[in-house]
Amino acid sequence: MKIFVNPYFYIYITVLLFFVPLPWMVAWAISVIIHEFGHFLAVNICGQKVHTLKIGIAGAEMGCDDLSFMQKIFCILSGPFFGLIPVLFQRFIPRISFCCWLLTIYNLLPIYPLDGGKVLYIILNKNLYKILQIIFCCIMMGISIYAAVFMGLGILPVAITLGLWMKSRNIPCKQH
User: Fold this and answer.
1) Of 117, 174, 109, 176, nearest in space to 144 by CA
2) CA dist., res. 159 & res. 136, Å (int)
3) Residue 70: its pLDDT value, please?
4) What is the predicted pLDDT for the residue at 174?
5) Is residue 22 a contact partner of residue 30, using CB atoms and an 8 Å limit?
6) Long-range contacts of range 14-20, CB-CB < 8 Å, 24 or more positions apart?
7) For residue 31, how many other CB atoms are within 10 A of its CB?
8) Across-strand partners of 59?
9) How far is CA 17 from the centre of its chain?
């Protein structure tokens, strides 16, 4: 398996270290590894091999052989659901459990580069999906602005939503 790391990923992590306490960074990294291992395990259960792993600011992307319709859905949803396993041990690993729970909820949002968006894209017609995605992005932006202004969370929620919206515009022309 070939692993590619986007150079901006290192800059992103370095900047985050200035703003996020190290124990939370470690917990988040562990939750991401658990999530991605769920995808990796599902691909192997389907009898396929992962050829590439691309790590970037927006997450990781695995490249594997073609999968059937149901195998694609199974492999995509395995990451978020595998991430729920540490939630069962919340009493012993509360920080990791919280990060896994948050990552699962985030990844099930119906926006394309995320797992929930990929499943909807596979199931729905591309044009219908684009309309739903625009509506959802507008709702998310409203919630983000509310969180930034009235909950004192600063610009972070708006920045995350804008980044997600910009990434979501790169919907592929064909399903894969």
Assistant:
1) 109
2) 16
3) 92
4) 47
5) no
6) none
7) 22
8) 56
9) 20
What's the pLDDT score for residue 129?
A: 76
Distance between CA atoms of residues 140 and 150, nearest Å: 15
* C-beta separation of 94 from 86 below 8 A: no
Helix (H) or strand (E) holding 114: none
- CA dist 151 and 144 (Å) reads 10
Is the pTM higher than 0.85? no
Residue in 139, 133, 116 with CA at minimum distance from that of residue 171: 133
Q: Is 125 strand, coil or helix?
A: coil
CA–CA dist 36, 63 (Å, integer): 12
User: Hey, what are 173's tokens?
Assistant: 């022309």
101: which 2 tokens? 């729970």
Give every strand in the sheet of 50-56, ordered side by side: 2-5, 50-56, 59-64
- In 3D, which of 11, 2, 53, 15 has the Cα closest to residue 32? 53
In the block, tokens 């797992």 appear at 115
Walking along the chain (176 residues) 10 residues at a time, the average pLDDT comes out as 87 82 89 93 93 83 88 94 93 93 89 86 79 81 83 74 71 50
